Structure formats: C-alpha cells, structure tokens
C-alpha cells in the first residue's frame, strides 16, 4: 500500500473537525495488479465544551477500482434525538452506470460493530460483518534496527499511554518533537533537504491519476481530487 494524508482542522459550532486530505493505493499482485484507490473521511471531535470529548467519522469517502467499480461511503453520527454512533452507509456501483440511484449493493451499519448487505431491488438484508468478533491480525514488522524506525522512536510514548501515565507520555512526546525541531533547524541552516529512506514522492503517480479521472468522470463535482501525487515505497 502506498499513499499520503494530510490534516486540515476547523471549528464548526461546538465541534472540532479534522479533514483528511490525500489518498491511498492498494495493489493486489495476486489479482493481475488490480488496484484500489481510497480516500479518508473527516473526523469530528464532539463534547469538547462538556469536558467529555469523543471522536466520530463524518462526511464521505470513496473507493475506486481499476475494475470499473466504485464505492461511496457516507458517515453519520448520533443526533440529539435519533441515530446511532459510528453509522455508515456504503453504495457499490459501476462507473458506467447511467443513474446514481442504481447500485449493485448497499452496506449499512456501524463501522465499530455490525453491518448488513443488501442487493439492489431486494428488501432482504444479510449479515455482512461484525467487527466485534474479528481477531486483530498480529503485527509483524521487521525490525531493521534503524534509529528512525517509527516503533523505536515512539516506544516510550506508547508504553506510557498503555500504562495510563499521561505525564510521562507527554514528556517523552516533547523530547521527540524538540529533537526533530532542532534537526530541522540544522538542516535549514545547512541548506539541506530531508530525504525519506523508504519512500519516494511521485508528482503524477500514473495509477492514482487514472483512478482519479475515473471517479471525477462519474461523480462530477462531488469529488475534487487534491493532486495526483503519492508517496511510493521502495527498498532502501
């Protein structure tokens, strides 16, 4: 998987909204390089003024495939009177479909719990996924021993968070940030650029560009791609 994401924050009423800009690309090597581009929804932090903040997903996200199928996912939060927490509704359609009202499948439910799937024209919903019964896959990341390995850098912060020690977590986080600021200042003074070890930036990644054009042609002004660039992994 390759991709990039950036965040833009803003206030809306009593909520803090974080818009996630960018896209990611998954390529299935065992399916003749079938590729899927997907965007990320916005995050909303509610309950700030009541000193009981909680996060929910909001807005829309999209998945576009090289197979000619795409999905629109709508996220909604619990309202004052009705609704449920972490609700989503997903429609899977063909790019060549002449009507946005027609769909192949509708998936609906809670992304944090159960969801169902319904075929177009059917009133019978079937179970789709219950994430509460899923077992997280073991995280097996090769430890290359590099100083800038993410898990190595944030190890003390992670341990403090798991232990509920917010004081230590904050202190260790500040150490990391101050060190990175000092290193950036040194690079600026020397006129040198920081070069990622495992990723290269491509201004016009061809698969991303193609999938964006497919989605724009279908959704028109509902989808505005940020750019066609992407971080692409390479072996060091």
From TrEMBL:
Bias-annotated ranges (Basic and acidic residues): 172-190
Stored Pfam families: Oxysterol_BP (PF01237)
Region feature Disordered, mapped onto this chain: 164-198
Top-level taxonomic group: Eukaryota
MF (Gene Ontology): oxysterol binding
Cellular component GO terms held in the UniProt record: cytosol; membrane
UniProt similarity note: Belongs to the OSBP family.
Name of the protein in its database record: Oxysterol-binding protein
Organism expressing this protein natively: Syncephalastrum racemosum (Filamentous fungus)
């Amino acid at each position: 998987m390759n991709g990039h994401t950036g965040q833009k924050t803003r206030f809306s009423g009593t909520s803090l909204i974080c818009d996630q800009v960018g896209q990611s690309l998954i390529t299935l090597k065992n399916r003749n390089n079938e590729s899927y581009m997907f965007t990320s929804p916005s995050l909303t932090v509610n309950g700030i003024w009541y000193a009981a903040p909680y996060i929910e997903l909001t807005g829309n996200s999209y998945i576009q495939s090289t197979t000619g199928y795409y999905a629109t996912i709508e996220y909604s939060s619990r309202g004052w009177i009705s609704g449920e927490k972490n609700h989503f509704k997903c429609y899977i359609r063909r790019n060549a479909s002449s009507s946005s009202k027609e769909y192949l499948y509708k998936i609906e439910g809670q992304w944090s719990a159960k969801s169902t799937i319904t075929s177009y024209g059917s009133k019978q919903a079937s179970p789709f996924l219950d994430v509460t019964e899923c077992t997280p896959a073991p995280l097996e990341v090769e430890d290359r021993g590099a100083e800038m390995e993410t898990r190595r850098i944030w190890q003390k912060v992670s341990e403090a968070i798991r232990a509920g020690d917010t004081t230590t977590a904050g202190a260790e986080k500040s150490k990391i940030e101050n060190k990175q600021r000092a290193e950036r200042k040194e690079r600026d003074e020397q006129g040198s650029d920081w070069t990622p070890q495992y990723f290269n930036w491509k201004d016009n990644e061809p698969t991303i560009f193609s999938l964006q054009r497919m989605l724009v042609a279908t959704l028109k002004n509902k989808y505005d791609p940020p750019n066609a660039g992407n971080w692409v992994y390479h072996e060091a």
